[in-house]
Specification:
The protein is built from six helices and four strands; from the N terminus they run αααβββαβαα. It has about 130 residues and is α+β, with helices and mostly antiparallel strands. It has a four-stranded mixed β-sheet with strand order 1-2-3-4, with helices on both faces. The radius of gyration is 14 Å and the shape is globular. It has a single domain, classed as Endonuclease, Chain A. It starts with 9 loop residues before the first helix and ends with a helix.
Amino acid sequence: MSVVKSSTDLTERAQSMGNNPVTLARNLRRKQTDAERKMWRVLRGRQFENSKFRRQEPIGQYIVDFVSLERQLIIEIDGGQHNQQTEIKKDEIRTKWLEKKGFKVIRFWNTDVLLNIEGVAIRILEAINSNK
């Protein structure tokens, strides 16, 4: 079962649900999509280039899928809803804000993670090496 998430201002969403962003992030970690679960298996426990990654981490008004704070790298795993015009615009705004905070943001489609995890891992490795 996959959970559809939007990249909207999750602080507002959390408040409307009576939760704070940390509680919402915790809930998102419990309800990962199949692609997020597969990506986490690759990133967790410093298995990937000895980089520490966190999942569903609040950063400002957003909750990012995966982040390495030491590498200043954010990895977003996007489902089909991110291909809609309104979501594309929201993702652009979100990415620009995160980049202004010093992060590099890379995005992958769910299908890429599920069907080509090796290719995804190569792109992440390239991003890590370019951030050194």
